[in-house]
# Entry
Amino acid sequence: MAGKTWLTRGAALMLFLLNWSQCMQFTEITVDPPEDLVIFDPGHLGLLQIQWSPAASLLNMTDCQQYFQLEYFNTYQDRWTAIRTTKRTYSAQFDLGKAVEVRVYTLLRGSCSSGSEVKSARYTELVQKPDSTGLAGTKVQDFVCVFHKMEYIQCNWERGPKQPANSHQRLYFWHKQLEQTKECPKYIIANGVRSGCNFTRKSLLDFIDINFCVNGSSPGGPLKPAFISLQIQNHVKPAVTETLHLQAGPDRQLELHWECPVGRVPKHCLEWEVERNQEGPDGNNLTQQILTKEMNLTLLSISDTKRNCFRVRSRLHKYCANKGFWSDWSHWTCHPDEKVTGADPGWDVITVCVHVAVAVITLLLLSLCVWALFRVWRSRQVKKLDSLATTLFASKSVVTVVEP
# Structure
């Protein structure tokens, strides 16, 4: 019995020593980071090619799989992004107006590490500072692109605060379907200066990164370039909702429904905001905003005689786009039926004032015309009377002498 116990303890000791030797072998593995880290700019306005080589100390290692962890600072999202890959190259998007920061680790997994993952304690890092060319304070500001009705795209920007007069700006763009960068097909001119660019729907593709660069020249030197990357499906602005229907139902219910706006925006991608302006019991207006994915609402009115007005706008919801623009508001529709013709009831006052002014000016012009015609007519009558009087006077002045 004692012999069996002794054998059991000996076997356990042997297993412990074996595991301990394997652990010691595992801990003795040295994993070096990759080498020769470089970044190439193929001229795609921010899409850079990152390349590296495996560590020389690991080239002959065959009993472990070798792969890499790439980390780069995403300048558009302001955070670090990590990618694991067995490849030795990777393409990433950067804002070239900011520093480019990249680092790479080596990862091992296999029999050399007893099946565990081993990561290099150190990493290879590369930091590239942005290009310093361009006059300070000349970079364009507030660059915004709007995909109107999913039919055409309009991009606009504001001048830099220190942009010299007589500057000449240019916009370039690129996406993966283009072999090389292209310039704006149709510039928007405001006060003799380029302030934007118009694109057709086919010029820019959705669900793909589109890189823009706005740079330029001036008598004082080159302008500071601005780099922007976006996807146009996140910048859609639907058209205005033209048709709203409002009718009274039983028990002081109001039934509102509307039609989809014109354009290429899919109906199932839209969400709606309804603004309700209701006259309260004390005569004050109560405003309410309602979000819905339906195209109809049934609401309760305070009273059949109190006025309720509604207007609607739309945008793409989160299941079709990450973000987007609200459309302009529709016209107001009211019950009782006192229609408001504009998007804002205040426009009625302006319309009335304009009509009154036009009427007054018209009356003044007509009065002047009548007065002028009367003067001309009176002048002609006076001339006729003078002519008649002269004729009569001349006929009475003739004396006929008859000799006997």
Notes: The CA atoms of residues 62 and 112 lie 9 Å apart.
